[in-house]
User: Fold these one by one.
Assistant:
Number 1:
Amino acid sequence: MNPVLKLLIEGTSLTTGQMAQVAGLTEAEVNQHLEQLKKDKIFLGWRPVLDLSHEAAAASAVRAVIEVKVTPERGGGFNRFAERIARFDEVESCYLMSGGYDLLVFVKGASLQKVASFVSEKLSTIEGVLSTSTHFMLRCYKEQGFLLDGGEAQSSRLNVAP
Amino acid sequence: MSTDPKRWVAGHVAALPKSGIRDFFELVAKMKGQDVISLGVGEPDFVTPWHIREAAIFALERGKTYYTSNLGLIELRRAISTYVEEHFAVSYRPEDQIIVTVGVSEALDLACRAFCNPGDKVMFHQPCYVSYHPSISLVHAQGIAVPTYAKDNFALTAEALRAAWQPGCKMLMLNLPCNPTGGTCSKEQLEKIAAFCREKDLLVLTDEIYSELSFDGPHTSIASLPGMAERCIFLHGFSKAFAMTGWRIGYACGPAPLIDAMMKVHQYSMLCASIIAQEAALEALLRGWDSVLKMREQYHRRRDLVVRRFNEIGLTCHSPRGSFYAFPSVAKIGVTEKEFAVGLLEKEKVAVVPGTAFGENGTGHVRACFATSYEQLIVAFDRMDRFVQGLKK
């Protein structure tokens, strides 16, 4: 497997210089790999992971998941709906699901009202949307692999041990 | 009359040399708060996988707080039996051929106490884990060090074994892959060692604690070779592969009369291993293999990084085939291992352990543990590079 892609899949927090050392490549080669992965639309980009419960990071802190039921279209299935919904700025992620509803949409907004108006005015009014069920997130315990509270204690490994 | 409390210390204990690791530990401890990067540790940087910790918590919640059988929980012994058979191709009966111990260290001590008479000779390859020789001395036996060399990738050879052998040798201790060298033996090399052990009627203690951390092909246990299971005590534990050092849980497998002899010592000294650690170990064996593979992959990649960097900065380093230790030579840059370790610590705040802490055959080498994050390793090697270039001027 492409060694740079392998590090990305593991969720690396290394800089490109560090990735180069780990993978035994030059930094220029790592950048080439990243460019190629971008061209191949495998690597889409970097994003920071924040604890939004902190006041300093609280802008756009209201988040919700919305279960959406739609009537699939002849010829287009669910794809056209999903692509239309995914284009809204408020939507962070959008998945086609098996089970009791069709699309699961992750939404972020500056306030409860903003998210509510997105659902009532933009999402549920799309033709073919049968129903929406909105769940506001109350508290986050783990964000994309990072534990928010009560993570591992500071390492107390001995500095020198047999 | 003397009032020195030391007058009560037994002679053979007073005669034991202080561990070289301890000296260095104290030196590093003095530098607390100074951004020291330690490559001097002997344990994983991973925390025990959560499902194992959760199983231990659940065991406590169910009130599992009592003694277990001296040999350990039968469910755990059954799981050990299956695991050892699947991974090492040796069969042991859970009922009477397996004993659960407080880490491999206790198993090693039990074996020395159960099998050595005063004056018996015990062979061990060196450089080796710090407690091997003292464990032998503590039972009034005599340790015979068999050297291993960088030119052989620190594999033990039957030739070196034969050269070191003396009349009165009863036992051979093996630790493959080895702490501190990462050296191990191929199947062919083990076959020659096994033939020598049969010829000289040696009992073999084989400490397999790093076996899961083998990077270049499958690991072979000497106990799996023809005619060896009946003269081997197979020692293993959970500390390294499952990142469970602080749980202190290990086991020994072997012929029933030998395990029974070890159990006699165990029942009067330890009684049993902690039930919480045993419950956690059971979970590790039943559902922990995915975590082992993930950690091994990380160690493998770090091994490649560390060996490459050592050689780039001019310290000759063989590629350790297992464990999480590199054992480079500092001889080429004209300093002793102790001068190198102390200088590197004082000037660049990186701790490595002088090779002589693991016996005189570690002269000219240092041990660097790569169970540390990539970020830390990269900074440590940048500092080490600067230190070595400074020495060369």
Number 2:
Amino acid sequence: MQQTNKKWYSGMFSNEDWWSAWLGLFFFALGLLSIWGLDVVGWIAKPKTWEFSNLMNDFSWSKILKTSSKNYHDLHPLLSLFITYFVFLSLTSIGAYFQKLNIKKYITGFTVIFFLTWFAWIVGHEAHLSAIDALVKKHNYYKEFNLTWGLQLGGGASYMLALIIGLLIGNFFKGFAAKIKEAAKPEWFIKTGIVLLGIKLGMMTMKAAGFTYELTLAGAAAAFVAYLLFWPIVYYIGRKYFKLNRNSAAVLSSGISICGVSASIATAGAIKAKPVIPIAVSTLILIFAMFELVVLPPVYTNLAPNEPIVNGAAMGMTVKTDGADAAAGAILDELMISKHLKKTGEHWEEGWILSAALLTKIWIDIFIGIWSFVLAWVWIRNVENKTAKEKIPKSEIWFRLPKFVMAYMLVWVIYLGLMYFFPDVLSYAKTGGNIVQGSFRKLMFMLTFLSIGVITDFSKLRGMGRLAVLYAIALFAIIAPIAYAVAYLFHHGMLPPVAK
Amino acid sequence: MKTLHYDLSYDQSHWICKGDDVQFRVADLNDLDMELRNYLVKKYQKGNFKIKMYFDFEHFPLWLRQYMAHYFNRELIYQL
């Protein structure tokens, strides 16, 4: 089956980027129905904080699971979980069908990934792992369960557990991983989750408009500055000290310094490199992204516990690929909130640190198309074509523009529209919106954590030689420190609002 | 100006360009542009041609396609 982009609407129903926009907008629309008093999203299951001996003494599903809305409180929690499974399986299978995935394999893989994800999500909510000794939403589960010890990781425990399960499968049970890989689509899941995060951005704007605009603009400025610094430095080192040819150096520079796999493919396409180059670089990026995802959130949390937004923005510029960045941002969000809560008793509102990580990444994503266009122009000017005059079609920018970002912005703009033109319906819109940006979005994030682990195979690092060495040096000695300095410059002193 | 459409792919070692009832298999894109010129001269003798070339993303590994769904399209102008 051919996959060429000939018309502006090419790929609209056949690639995952468009499908994350469709799926995200569909969930968003369902949430909006609460404006008319319809709750069609409250059936989705969500995990509760529970304690092991308490559960074993008197087992009940309602101790570990509940529906997301009180309108569905009569629904058995297990039934709520199966409805959640059925709805997500059905909707993603429609997308998988149009993306020409093997539906049989997809259904099997998704079923395994879904239930393993929920296993991690529920276990991660065990009080010894998640409960924090502080008052959160009128509860102190640490005291309520009379705990004598606890890791106090908040929601971060579930994320880390899902990632560990995924990594174990991807690296030690490779045959099993191959069987479920058809449904391990971290980019699709996370992009859908990011579209839903547009609701959160809308709600954040209602709460603190000035701060949200400042965060958005600072994210754009930081991303732009980072582009101008990272790319030339990595390209120079690649050419001068690692003796890479021009094409490999350019593709690797974009991969390391811009936005990982998508940037390396876009750059390779712009300079018309042979496809083997971005494929090799992408393998490298995905493995390093996993190191970044595991290492950076705890490092930033402990090194700069009082700079949550700086840490989030630095994460957005350092961690490559949308999936790993959003995952790292989500872990950072949980770890920093938990640490601050434990230390001060003050509960920062969730989602702001994650949004800081995503906003820089989203601007980087938007710039990819433009950056690739500029590179294509520079390459054509420098490589003389003696037989024909070559032009760069302007449609190249459109084809490389991430469509899920358009959907994310659209969701945000719709919320802004409601805020300015229909303020009296806002509280109704928020009822459904909160469930969609909460339970729906978190499920997409959890699926991402498990899937990203399943597709990461560390053994692929073997044989990468000097590319891997250059990547490691560039990432930890150049990108991470510069990203942190730029993030500090633009976001220093910004703090998330305190949750009520 | 006559517009011709071609599909482009890569098979591990060579670029493959198909369209207008012809197929080229070359190691380098510059060679492709040269062969295309020779072909146009042979078939049409003279005239102005716009060549639109679309890379077939199907030739990228499946696991990679979720990150980016476009490689490149080309537009070449030949004045014979």
